[in-house]
């Protein structure tokens, strides 16, 4: 299992959480190791533009693309999820993302920002990511920006993306399961037992 090292601030907490969930973990920017690993975690904290610049500096967009082309699992976390969309808009600045999903990450429509703390989510009944978790379970969020719409139209029978939603001011995308590409806006590595179960669910998906 590889945690992609592109200068993000939550590398070590992601590494510890994935290791506690039962995986052997390496933190590296080596493209061969990142492409060939059983699973790749793309963490991210801070500004969209800064994370995207860091990702480009290690050719992370190519790594993600190669993995997905081969059906190899990728898990994005927080801004590591946001950069999977086409673009991010922060403080009037638009930054191009990796474009794995259509859509824009922008500021939440809420009276209090950042959205910081524990919140419930609305997962599809057939979600693998949230399997075995109570619908009232809470996960830890810290963000002011998110994808507030889901625009991908798959059209493939049995392969429709599974989108999980949360609400802070208005609805936003909290998690996605889309073929080999999964992601969470919240931090599973900071979400206690619920986050640990979620990471084990992802590792089960990777193993199968």
TrEMBL record:
Designated gene of the protein: hisH
UniProt-annotated location(s): Cytoplasm
Functional pathway: Amino-acid biosynthesis; L-histidine biosynthesis; L-histidine from 5-phospho-alpha-D-ribose 1-diphosphate: step 5/9
Matches recorded under InterPro entries: Class_I_gatase-like (IPR029062), GATASE (IPR017926), Imidazole-glycPsynth_HisH (IPR010139)
HAMAP family associated with the record: HisH
SUPFAM superfamilies on file: Class I glutamine amidotransferase-like
EC code: 4.3.2.10, 3.5.1.2
One Pfam family in the UniProt entry: GATase
PROSITE patterns, A to Z: GATASE_TYPE_1
Keywords, comma-separated and alphabetical: Amino-acid biosynthesis, Cytoplasm, Glutamine amidotransferase, Histidine biosynthesis, Hydrolase, Lyase
Major location (coarse): cytoplasm
Protein name: Imidazole glycerol phosphate synthase subunit HisH
